[in-house]
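[audit] Reproducing an earlier prediction to check determinism. Same input, same settings, fresh worker. If the tokens differ from the archived copy the diff job will pick it up downstream; this log only records the rerun itself.
[audit] input (494 residues):
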Amino acid sequence: MFMNSKPMLNAYPDSLGGNLGDIVTLLKTEAMQDVFSSFYILPSLYHSDLDRGFSVIDYDLNEQLANREDLDRLKNMGIDLKLDFILNHASAQSPQFQDLVEKGEASAYRDFFIDWNHFWEGHGTMTEEGYIQPEESCLKQMFFRKPGLPILMVEFPDGKKVPYWNTFYQEVHGRHYLGQMDVNIQSPKVWEFYRETLEKIASYGAAIVRLDAFAYAPKTPGKKNFLNDPETWELLQKIHALAEPLGLTLLPEIHAAYDEKIYQTLAEKGYATYDFFLPGLVIDAIENRRGTYLAAWAKEIVEKKIPTVNMLGCHDGIPLLDLKGLLQEEEIQSLIERIVSRGGMVKNLHGQKNLYYQVNATYYSALGESDEKMLLARAIQMFMPGKPQIWYLDLFAGKNDHEAVQRAGESGHKEINRTNLSTDQIAEGLKKDVVQKQLALIRMRNTHKAFSEGAEVAISGGEKSLEIRWEYNSAFVTLYVNFESGTYTIVESR
């Protein structure tokens, strides 16, 4: 399926003003004319209870933040949507899980979620606590996102406690549960739910569906619980078969080291991939005054025809584990230390620093809160092959929000880069030179004929320079970057 390569805004429905209606109003202003052709609205658009939207109760619109009229107005402006579908899990507050808690064995959703003991039967030993401890040969294959086994003990109405698979967050208050419960992709009811959800997302005006955490969904005893092969690709194909008739393009979210070549596998299977390498490569190029690694990656995208969605900042963090195989380990570590020295935060998984995969910081703060560096980074992004996605806070040169992290408490590190901007803050922001110049760069990418579909892209450069040229028919536009001076120039012909 076709995905245009025009710029995409990325924000929560309440990021700019207070609700989606405020964002639509902003996009209709003169300042925002012809800037964005797509909009990735994060999933607090739906009814959710945790993780700023990623623990979905149901996929109906959260009327406090968005309504059909807002979505119709975006459609009438010619802005298509990218929306999330969380394949791996649903909220413990979802109607399916609540039915399970209420009815226990009699629930129609008894197997909608993964009964841990059913899953591991014959592959472990029953404990006194009532769950199976899997064999060590099975466990060593697995990657858990939190300490201990990923189990939530669910008390049925008859008092029986049944362990259910729970990869991500959980809280227990008696028989009241909060958390993100893994769904059982072997269940026909799950596939009925998948089909209905995709139909609903399509009805909202989505063109692209981001498949969040989907690589955790296929699980088999004795295999990994992330990116199983071939099960991951079989799942993707089955989802594609549901999505294609609805006119939806799938964008699978997979973080993996460069040297695993997962991005290449996705391209070969006909999917676009997230360019999680670009954010770190751009910081490396600007801070170390070298374009070598960045240019090599850009050339690879062009030569291998790898369709990408790229970004600088996003709602998660700046991915760095992905760079393994592109940069040396010590160079990656140096990047982390630099961003942390500027107020960024690293989440240690289980206290093991070697398991990091992102640093939480605004991109502006990661670059030392330099307007010049931010503009250079944005210019490079606008000329990179792929579809550029722009995090709202980067656009407004947002700084690390440590107060928000403190308010959020434990596990609130991501709030450093999720500050909501009021209409007054937006109005003030639009007066800044760094904001206006970013808008001009994004508008150029959105409207210049040289960036048309089917354009030829040529990349060259040495250690200290980078040149990216787009050409379509008689129109061309070329970016010249001097990393030594940290400056760029653009030459164009329309």
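[audit] rerun output stored. Observation attached for the diff report: The two ends are 29 Å apart (CA to CA).
[audit] end
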